[in-house]
Backbone:
């Protein structure tokens, strides 16, 4: 028991890094995903083509490779990021692609009749987006966004390859130093707790949007 | 008064509508009939500003439109599948546009919406969501939503297609009572009895060759 309390501070500080990456990635990639989703539906072909290639690259290669590429690869051509920054760049690029795809699907699922109804009611494009399209898209995409959010909690552990001290790394260090399984079990418990929390929040959100069908 | 002259429309190289002209006095009802695919919905969409015409003009309430999809505030539409906003309650469906586009305050818009719902025997349905309504009730909400914008003219796309005979007669009565209040109405229908019951004029849209 004493041992548990001994290593908890280092695990918590690792969990802090995990959460930082988690929130910072979401803060950037969710809005960017929304913006790019419009580009993916754009009638301007070159933009659409470019974004499709981007999404293909991001979803078609492992996030681990992208992370290594940004931190170890790009310096070779003179583009050097500090560790944390490299992690955020890689995660934001990757998750933006997933979110953009999800929002694109959500936008397409909105019946065109909704937009026409808004038009004959003299709503502006902005008003239509705000009051009709966005609320309906959120309801549609929430389950898929939720999946990605939960993946992100776990994916954040990949940053250990570029030497960032996240939760997994903290546990791993303690395990190899003290030759015991306890830290890894604790790490698993902390991940489970974080994901349990995410799940509860996502359920609440889904419930909030279940007032209509 | 509504005046449409020489309206024409093609999709690609397929001509759908040609030389469509008619004049409706205020409060008159025009029914549009014709076989499936003849272009009735297309005509309605052009008049409502949802589709552009290749030629022709339209004058409504002293204003002339070139039928190029410009804003047509004065035309309300009751769509065939109603297109109610599923995320908004009945009251919010009706009051959204008056608040946003006509800048009415919420209380006033709601008062008017409740009056409209009362007239349509829907007084107790204001707080429901569209999924909780029957087809006929949805239609009346769609009518209330359009009327709340105080249009000069209201267009319906096949308002009786999903209704049983009793409800059909109710809609006919509703349409005639709106006529008494001076609203000009354009109604697409396949239902000849219904058309006869309400129409001042009938426009037959025929499929064009080729
Ligand atoms: N956006 C479009 N692009 C190409 N063709 C179209 C488009 N909209 C309609 N059409 C064609 O125009 C013709 C007329 O369609 P419209 O929907 O106006 O017919 P309608 O008279 O309302 O038929 P119905 O009684 O079945 O509702 C059809 O042949 C249809 O395929
Ligand atoms: Mg039609």
Residues:
């Amino acid at each position: 028991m004493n041992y548990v309390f001994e290593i908890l501070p280092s695990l918590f500080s690792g969990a802090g890094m995990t959460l930082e990456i988690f929130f910072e990635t979401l803060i950037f990639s969710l809005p960017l995903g929304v913006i790019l989703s419009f580009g993916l539906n754009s009638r301007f072909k070159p933009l659409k083509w470019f974004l499709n290639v981007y999404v293909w690259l991001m979803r078609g290669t492992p996030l681990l490779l992208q992370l290594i590429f940004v931190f170890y690869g790009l310096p070779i051509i003179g583009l050097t990021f500090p560790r944390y920054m490299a992690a955020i760049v890689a995660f934001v690029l990757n998750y933006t692609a997933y979110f953009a795809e999800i929002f694109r699907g959500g936008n397409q699922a909105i019946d065109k009749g909704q937009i026409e109804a808004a038009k004959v009611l003299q709503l502006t494009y902005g008003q239509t987006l705000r009051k009709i399209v966005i609320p309906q898209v959120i309801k549609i995409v929430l389950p898929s966004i939720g999946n990605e959010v939960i993946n992100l909690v776990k994916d954040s552990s990949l940053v250990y390859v570029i030497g960032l001290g996240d939760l997994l790394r903290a546990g791993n260090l303690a395990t190899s130093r003290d030759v015991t399984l306890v830290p890894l079990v604790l790490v698993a418990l902390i991940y489970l707790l974080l994901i349990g929390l995410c799940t509860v929040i996502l359920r609440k959100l889904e419930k909030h949007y279940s007032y209509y069908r | 008064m509504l005046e449409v002259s020489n309206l024409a429309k093609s999709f690609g190289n397929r001509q759908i509508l040609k030389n469509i002209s008619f004049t409706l006095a205020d409060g008159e009802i025009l029914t549009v009939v014709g076989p499936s695919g003849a272009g009735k919905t297309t005509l309605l969409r052009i008049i409502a500003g949802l589709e552009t015409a290749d030629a022709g003009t339209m004058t409504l309430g002293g204003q002339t439109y070139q039928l190029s999809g410009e804003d047509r505030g004065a035309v309300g539409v009751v769509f065939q599948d109603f297109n109610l906003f599923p995320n908004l309650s009945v009251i919010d469906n009706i009051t959204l546009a008056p608040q946003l586009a006509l800048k009415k305050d919420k209380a006033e818009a709601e008062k008017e919406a409740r009056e409209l719902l009362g007239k349509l025997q829907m007084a107790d349905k204001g707080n429901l969501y569209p999924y909780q309504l029957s087809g006929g009730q949805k239609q009346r909400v769609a009518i209330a939503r359009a009327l709340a914008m105080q249009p000069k003219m209201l267009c319906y796309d096949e308002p009786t297609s999903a209704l049983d005979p009793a409800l059909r007669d109710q809609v006919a009565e509703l349409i005639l009572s709106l006529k008494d209040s001076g609203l000009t109405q354009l109604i697409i229908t396949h239902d000849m009895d219904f058309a006869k019951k309400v129409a001042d004029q009938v426009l037959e849209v025929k499929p064009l060759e080729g």
Notes: The interface with chain B takes residues 111, 113-114, 116-124, 127, 131-132, 135-136, 139, 211-213 of chain A (CB under 8 Å). The pocket of adenosine-5'-triphosphate (ligand 1) is lined by residues B 11, 16, 34, 36-42 (CB under 6 Å). Residues 2-211 of chain A form a domain with the MetI-like fold fold (CATH 1.10.3720.10).
